[in-house]
Amino acid sequence: MSLRTSEPDLYRLLEGEITRQREGIELIPSENYVSVAVLEAMGTVFTNKYSEGFPRKRYYGGQEFTDQIEQIAIDRAKKLFRCDHANVQPYSGAIANMAAFSSWLELGDTILGMDLSHGGHLTHGHPLTLMATMYRFVRYKMKDTETGEIDYDQLRAVAKKERPKIVLAGFSAYPRELNYARIAEIAKEVDAIAVMDIAHIAGLIAGGVLENPFDHGFDMCTTTTHKTLRGPRGGMILTRGIAGNPLKQPEKKRENLPTLVDRAVFPGVQGGPIMNIVFAKAVAFGEALQPEFAEYARQVVKNAKHLAKHLMKRGFKLITNGTDNHLMLVDMMSSFQMKGKQAESVLDQIGLTLNKNVIPDDPLPPYDPSGIRLGTPAVTTRGMKEQDMETIADWMYRAVTHANDSTYLTKMSAEVREYCIRFKLPSDSSGSDV
Predict the structure, then answer these.
(1) Active site residue 390
(2) What tens digit of pLDDT does each residue of 69-123 get?
(3) Is 233 marked active-site?
(4) Fewest Cβ atoms nearer than 10 Å: which of 100, 121, 231, 245?
């Protein structure tokens, strides 16, 4: 029996979400649209199979096809990111970070990461997370929020004082490129490993438009497999070095990182991999290896730079005054005396989806902060180009300057819906209901 027949109420919710995605503009920088092939892979019978362990080292039988699929995903990931080892099993980016940290650290050890209000991620030590109870987090910040330059002198001083075992780079709301060589050099100076959380920019690294941390001395990268990489929701850990036997506990040495990571993932923090998602990861990595993906990555950055330029022309104050990647952070209080939560709501009314976000050293609380965060991965997937970014910037300006005019916003929402008809979702070409 089909979903439409067996669960009509749930099916109506699915139809509603399809319509929302089709008729709106997705600007949340961590969201994207997957291909029909990735959708198909997630809906396969591999969801029925338990595969605890690793290729050729499983605890259950019947693994002749799962082994091949996981190995293909691993090989493609290594090729994409030019690294020696890939663990494709993590259920999410948060789990990938938890496994990465636990592979190298003991309870109470110190991690030096980016300040959360300056762009760092929730899993990099927010006080409410489990990892904040397990490890001690210390911070570095931007030196200048007008340019986005990291205070590398402060980073080095904190590292020398606190002697972290991990120097952690990576972010969820930082619009500029990092100096990986400098960070790796500081980590080496204090005998720490250099770890980069590339979750947001993995697709831009794979597409060759942003620097690869492994080219500059990093020991490990963690990532999600969705966002700019356009795969299924999940995580991955990449390292230098060749894995040994995951059934044996090695010493905590750099050359043993791959084996340490494998053991930290399973049985460390999770059980058997979700094999239909591993299958979909393999499909997505194959897509990312194609020349068309590199062109997509280039267009994401072109669109982001163009959108940033035209937002600033209309009076939006951007943190770091622009972007080098796929996202931008707007100080709405400085721009229009509007909190981020209100801006998110107003823009949602006309069909533009983005998220409220703290700005550096925000005086307002995280749930009602001063800023908003937006990006271009999803709109680029739909085929939008630079001229469309000017239209989006204009919509945003008109909406926030008519925030109290419901009639005006209703007319704008119809304008956005009509515009979106020209840009298909990847799934629209499949004839599928999903």
Answers:
(1) no
(2) 999 999 999 999 999 999 999 999 999 999 999 999 999 999 999 998 999 898 8
(3) yes
(4) 245
Q: Any catalytic annotation for residue 7?
A: no
Query: Can you give the CATH number for the domain in which 97 is found?
Result: 3.40.640.10
Q: Is 180 a catalytic residue?
A: no
69 & 168 share domain: yes
Q: How far apart are CA 309 and CA 33, in angstroms?
A: 25
- Give domain status of residue 13, yes or no: no
- 8 Å CB contact between 371 and 332: yes
pLDDT, position 434: 57
Nearest Cα neighbor of 352 from 376, 369, 371 is 376
Of residues 26, 70, 197, 344, which has the active-site annotation? 197
Three-state DSSP class for 177? coil
- Do both 267 and 316 map to the same domain? no
For residue 267, cis peptide bond before it (omega within 30 degrees of 0): yes
* Distance separating alpha carbons of residues 283 and 40, to the nearest angstrom: 10
**List 11, 50, 91, 419, catalytic entry:** 50
Q: Would you give the DSSP letter of residue 267?
A: I
Residue 244's pLDDT is 75
Q: Which of 188, 233, 302, 314 is catalytic?
A: 233
Q: What percent of the chain has pLDDT over 70?
A: 99
Same domain, 405 and 275: no
Please indicate, yes or no, whether residues 279 and 303 belong to a single structural domain of this protein.
no
pLDDT tens-digit readout, 136-175: 999 999 999 999 999 999 999 999 999 999 999 999 999 9
In the residue annotation, 50 being an active-site residue is answered as: yes
Can you give the pLDDT at residue 72? 98
Active site residue 227: yes
Q: How many independent structural domains does the chain possess? A: 2
Last residue of a domain, one of 263, 288, 313: 288
